Amino acid sequence: xxxxxxxxxxxxxxxxxxxxxxxxxxxxxxxxxxxxxxxxxxxxxxxxxxxxxxxxxxxxxxxxxxxxxxxxxxxxxxxxxxxxxxxxxxxxxxxxxxxxxxxxxxxxxxxxxxxxxxxxxxxxxxxxxxxxxxxxxxxxxxxxxxxxxxxxxxxxxxxxxxxxxxxxxxxxxxxxxxxxxxxxxxxxxxxxxxxxxxxxxxxxxxxxxxxxxxxxxxxxxxxxxxxxxxxxxxxxxxxxxxxxxxxxxxxxxxxxxxxxxxxxxxxxxxxxxxxxxxxxxxxxxxxxxxxxxxxxxxxxxxxxxxxxxxxxxxxxxxxxxxxxxxxxxxxxxxxxxxxxxxxxxxxxxxxxxxxxxxxxxxxxxxxxxxxxxxxxxxxxxxxxxxxxxxxxxxxxxxxxxxxxxxxxxxxxxxxxxxxxxxxxxxxxxxxxxxxxxxxxxxxxxxxxxxxxxxxxxxxxxxxxxxxxxxxxxxxxxxxxxxxxxxxxxxxxxxxxxxxxxxxxxxxxxxxxxxxxxxxxxxxxxxxxxxx
Length: 531
Hints:
It contains 20 helices and 8 strands. The chain has helices at 6-14, 33-39, 43-55, 80-90, 105-109, 118-139, 143-148, 154-178, 201-216, 232-244, 246-250, 255-266, 309-317, 325-328, 343-350, 411-423, 430-445, 459-470, 476-482, 516-521, and strands spanning 95-97, 182-183, 198-199, 293-297, 339-341, 363-364, 382-383, 406-410. The strands form 4 sheets. Strands 1-5 form a two-stranded antiparallel ribbon. Strands 2-3 form a two-stranded antiparallel ribbon.
C-alpha cells in the first residue's frame, strides 16, 4: 500500500513541529502539552504524526508547493530530495544545471561552494528538521505518555517509534556523508533553542549505526511492510551503505560487514523488475518495480505536490530545443531545459557501440543540433531516465507535479555493492558477484551479449557500471569519493573546479562546508578544514 496523502496527515503533526527562520539546528519549539494531549488521542493520530516525518522527505511546505516550511528558503532550495540530488549529482561528472544564475548552483556544480551557499543551507536545514520531527515523535510516544493518554496497542506504537528512529538515522547518515558533522539532539533534549553538541564524523557513524540496529528489532521484515515505509530491508541497506563507506567516514574499513548486509538485503525477497525503466515511471509503485525499490520517496501529482523530487528531474529533462515534454508525460516545454549531461557521463554509453543496445542508455543523441562536448552548460545531451508516463503508456495524474516515486535505494545497488565489497576484501564469492552484475546487464541488454567474466570484474569497471545503472539516483559523489576520484586530478570532467575543460580540486572539498548561518546559531559547531 502506498503511504501517501502526506499533506493531510502532515497537517496534524505540523501543530507541534515548528521550524524557525534563523535556526538551522532546528529543534521543535516547546509544545503546549494540552495541545499535544488533544492531538495524540489514538493510534491513528500517532500514525498521522509519523507520516509527517516521511512527508519531510517529499514536501517543501504543509499546504502549498510554492512555499517552504523551512524559514528563509524557497520551495526548491529547501526540498529534501532536490537538495540531495544537487549535492550528490550536480557536483559530479553526470549532469549540469543550465540556469547557473540560480542561487548557489554554480558553486555546487563547479565544486567551488562556500559556507554561504544557500543550497548547502537548504540541505543542512532540511536534514536537521527531519531529526527534529523524529525526536518530537519519540518525545510524545513514551510509555508514560501513552499510559496517561490511554493509548492502546503499544506494540504498534513501538513499531512507529522504530520507524522514527530509522528516519532520524537516515537524515543523520546524509549529513555525515555530505558535511562530516552535525549537532546532536535526541528526544531527551529540552525543546526550544538548544545548541546541541557537535558530533564528529566518527561519532555520527556510531550514532547512525546504533539507531539503525536499535530500530531494526521492532520493524517488519524486509519487503513485507507497507510500500514507502521503513522495514528491516531499508535499515539493512543503510547499514550496508555506511559500512561500505566506513573507511572514508572513520578511517577503518568494514567491507566484510558491508557484504554481509548486502546479503541480508538480497535475501529479503526483493526482485529485479523485468524492464529497467519501470523503476522510474509514474506507476512504479504498482508496475512490478515496487519489488525492486527498497525505499522510495513517494510523489503524487495530487496530494504530494512539490518542486523537487522527480518533478524537477522529469520537468528538467525536457529540452528547450527538443520540446519532449509530451513524451515524458508533462507539458511540452517542461521547465525550459534545466539539465544537460556532461560528456564524461555520456561517453560511458556512447564510446562503446555495445551500449547502443543497453536499455539504460536513455540519452537522446540522434537528429539533434546538440553536441557531446559542452563548452557552455546549454549544449550537452539530455536523458529521459525518469518519466511521468505509466508502464501502459498513460499519463500521471498531473502534468506539472509527477506521480513518479523517487527510488532512494534499489536492489540493483545492493548487487553492485556486494561485488565491490568482495573486490575490496570483504569476503563472499567471485562467481556470485559476477552473477549479480550480469543479472543487471542481462536486463539492460535483453540477452547475455553484455555479460562480463570474473577477470573483467574490477573496481575500474564497477565505478563506471555504478554510473550506468544508478545515474541521477543521488549516489555519484559518494561513489567518486570512495573510489578516490572526486578530488585531485586523477579524474577530470567538464566544469570540475570551474573551467569548461575541468581542473583539479582540493582534497578538503570531499566535505561540504558547514553553512555560515548554522555556525552563527550554534556556537558548538565548527567549520570544516579548508573553508
